[in-house]
Write a structure and sequence with these properties.
This protein is an alpha/beta fold and 349 residues long. It has helices at residues 13-16, 51-65, 76-86, 100-108, 118-123, 180-193, 195-207, 217-225, 236-245, 278-288, 291-301, 314-317, 330-334, 336-345; strands spanning 7-8, 43-47, 69-73, 92-98, 112-113, 136-148, 172-173, 231-235, 250-253, 264-272, 304-305. The protein is 38% helix and 16% strand. Helix 2 (51-65) packs antiparallel against helix 11, helix 6 (180-193) crosses helix 7 (195-207) and helix 7 crosses helix 14.
């Protein structure tokens, strides 16, 4: 199928879906007796994931199924607000985004509907999806500890809580609390330890900072590389991207299963409440959860498949076995507002 466009922009989506085909002034009218084949309606996805990470998946899906995918990319909040504003007029059948808290919020805002898919229910573990099927995690994102292997050995580390100990004073680096990944991490700590204990830990982290918080995880890893701090917390794929470029004096530490395992989050998707192409939307989600979709998620961004039987990328495999927390990620959404307030009280900026 010929694509008339690949990327819809937010400013033109209102009329772009009708703009495929030849210009009206140059087309030749069909003879009255000739039947005109109807062009299948494209599947439109609203995505907060970067184009370079999703376009190859959409292309593979189209090659496998013949279903054309067109997509809008933007931050999650504007996409959710757009779905609310468009209502039954929306062209979008799928919302694809990152962070379980964001997916939970989308469900709470009424912009998603249950998939009712035995395939998805069987493939995606309970902890990584909405109990009613409004959204499903499609890849796991580990938020874990990284450390300077020139200064530390792995056996000197314990886990997230231990980083609040005063032995790490002036040695810890963190990303800003404004990023949803840290908000979800703290939300899950509230669920695990209770609010009082979680606040005590976050206050300890703030006291141990070597530098002001960083805008992104890449800069944090580079600060460890430069010797400006000894330890930090990042999403593992940021570390992996730098490893693809150069050798680093930095290693990953996985919190052991005995302490609850590694905090994970998801990238995930749901069918929009007013999906005009519901069947195709469900087929896309089920394809994402299939082996081919899972392999592409794992290789393109160095994430972990949600389906345990699908292997990780060789770069990720070299980090050693990771035991993810099995606590339900619904808590990341349910407790995210409490986490933001806690971080503000603790002085975590």
């Amino acid at each position: 199928m010929t694509h008339c466009f690949r990327l819809l922009t937010l400013s033109i989506i209102g009329f772009s879906l009708a703009a495929c085909g030849d210009d009206a002034t140059t087309s030749t009218p069909a003879e009255p007796e000739t039947a005109v084949a109807e062009t299948p309606q494209p599947l439109v996805v609203y995505s907060s994931r970067a184009e370079q990470l999703i376009a190859p998946l959409f292309d593979a899906f189209t090659a496998d199924t013949g279903i054309d995918v067109q997509y809008v990319t933007d931050s999650a909040q504007p996409l959710i607000e757009r779905l609310k504003a468009e209502g039954t007029s929306t062209p979008a059948s799928v919302l694809l985004t990152v962070d379980a808290g964001v997916l939970w919020f989308a469900e709470q805002q009424g912009v998603l509907q249950p998939a009712n898919s035995p395939v998805l229910d069987a493939r995606v573990p309970d902890a990584y999806r909405d109990p009613q099927g409004h959204w499903y995690g499609l890849s796991l994102r580990a938020r874990t500890i990284v450390y300077d292997n020139r200064e530390l050995a792995a056996d000197e580390l314990t886990g997230y809580v231990d980083l609040a100990d005063e032995k790490w004073r002036g040695r810890l680096c963190l990303r800003t609390s404004k990023k949803v990944y840290n908000q979800s991490l703290v939300a899950m700590m509230i669920a695990e330890y209770g609010e009082a204990r979680a606040e005590e830990v976050v206050r300890g982290w703030v006291a141990n900072l070597a530098e002001p918080v960083f805008a992104n995880d890449t800069k944090l890893v580079e600060a460890i590389e430069d010797g400006r701090c000894d330890v930090g917390i990042v999403n593992s794929y940021y570390f992996g991207r730098l490893q693809r470029e150069r050798e680093l004096p930095v290693s990953i530490f996985w919190q052991p299963e005995t302490l609850g395992g590694v905090h994970v989050n998801v990238s995930g998707a749901g069918i929009t409440a007013n999906a005009p192409s519901r069947d195709a939307a469900q087929r896309l989600l089920e394809w994402f959860a299939g082996d081919r979709g899972q392999q592409l998620f794992a290789s393109l961004n160095l994430e972990f498949p949600v389906v345990a039987s699908v292997p990780v990328d060789p770069i990720v495999a070299a980090w050693g076995e990771m035991s993810p927390s099995d606590r339900t990620l619904v808590d990341a959404g349910r407790l995210q507002a409490d986490a933001v307030k806690l971080m503000d009280r603790a002085g975590y900026r």
